[in-house]
Design goal:
Number of strands: 0
Helix content: over 70%
Number of domains: 1
Shape: elongated
Radius of gyration: 23 Å
């Protein structure tokens, strides 16, 4: 059950009111209430093994198991002829990407290209998958558990509830990605570093991707998913709708992030700027979907 601050008593000794204070401006939003909503949801997720165990397993597959197998095969036990043929295929990459590839041997160049360019979209797939799974049920789940009424009559403003739910959905996916990114960096440097003259990863493009490009794509996707979660009637319907939204978003993020790594040094920065603008617009629109009537399940279309 989502916990929020206790209602304040009305002036003059009147009865306590559960209605939210009139706070329509951004400056009047309470960070404390936003954090209480987010913290309560995150605590419930951490206490649920059915949530965090698949999350850890998903991160381990993409950031640990697959990279280790591929890079170990290329650098240590790969067939020389096969690796040589793979090295020749690097010529299909853009010239800007080919100039960035380091290494003097076929194994080194192939492993470098794989680690820096071809596995980059993993950083997009993992957070989107985890966060959308959380966000899809975060609002409709309150109605199904019977806690939507408590949240609807709390003093928290609808925007504060929305932002708290957004943070609770975004943090687990992004935190898993950052942790996996650290593990992935260690694997790349251990297996590929000796082939190219030393530790080199993360590259500048990867720092931009992880800290500047991934967050807005994640926020944009969640703005749509939370809007769906507020409108649908069941968690199952929310999960199905979220899947339809997530797949194209993964495709767009996949192509754009890869293009940013292949392109010039400023490509990722500009991509991030555009993504942040679109994400802010999406979040501002998505806030309108959260209302007390929808938390109670009495709004039209719910």
């Amino acid at each position: 059950m989502t916990a929020v601050a206790e209602p304040r008593a009305a002036k003059g000794g009147g009865k306590a009111s559960g209605a939210a204070p009139a706070r329509t401006g951004w400056r009047n939003l309470s960070r404390k209430r936003i954090w209480i909503v987010a913290r309560s949801d995150i605590r419930q997720l951490l206490e649920d093994k059915g949530f965090w165990m698949p999350m850890v397993f998903l991160g381990a597959i993409f950031f640990l198991i697959i990279p280790t197998i591929l890079l170990l095969t290329i650098t240590k036990i790969g067939d020389v002829q096969v690796v040589s043929q793979m090295s020749q295929t690097l010529k299909v990459l853009p010239q800007s990407a080919q100039h960035q590839i380091k290494g003097t041997s076929d194994q080194g160049r192939t492993a470098y290209a794989l680690a820096v360019f071809l596995l980059a979209p993993v950083a997009i797939v993992v957070p989107l998958t985890i966060s959308t799974a959380i966000g899809a049920s975060t609002i409709v789940g309150e109605r199904e558990r019977g806690t939507g009424e408590f949240l609807a009559h709390s003093p928290a403003h609808e925007r504060e509830i929305y932002l708290g739910k957004l943070i609770a959905s975004l943090v687990p996916g992004y935190a898993t990605t950052l942790l996996g990114f650290g593990v992935y960096s260690l694997i790349v440097n251990l297996f590929v570093g000796p082939e190219v003259g030393g530790w080199f990863f993360p590259t500048s493009q990867w720092w931009v991707l992880m800290l500047w490009v991934v967050p807005p794509f994640l926020a944009l996707t969640l703005s749509v998913v939370l809007r769906l979660s507020a409108r649908v009637k069941s968690t199952a319907a929310a999960q199905q709708a979220a899947g339809l939204v997530t797949l194209p978003m993964i495709g767009i993020a996949y192509s754009q992030s890869t293009g940013a790594l292949f392109g010039a040094g400023s490509a990722g920065l500009w991509l991030g700027v555009v993504a942040w603008i679109v994400a802010i617009f999406g979040l501002s629109r998505g806030m309108r979907a959260v209302s007390r009537s929808r938390l109670l399940g009495v709004a039209d279309g719910v």
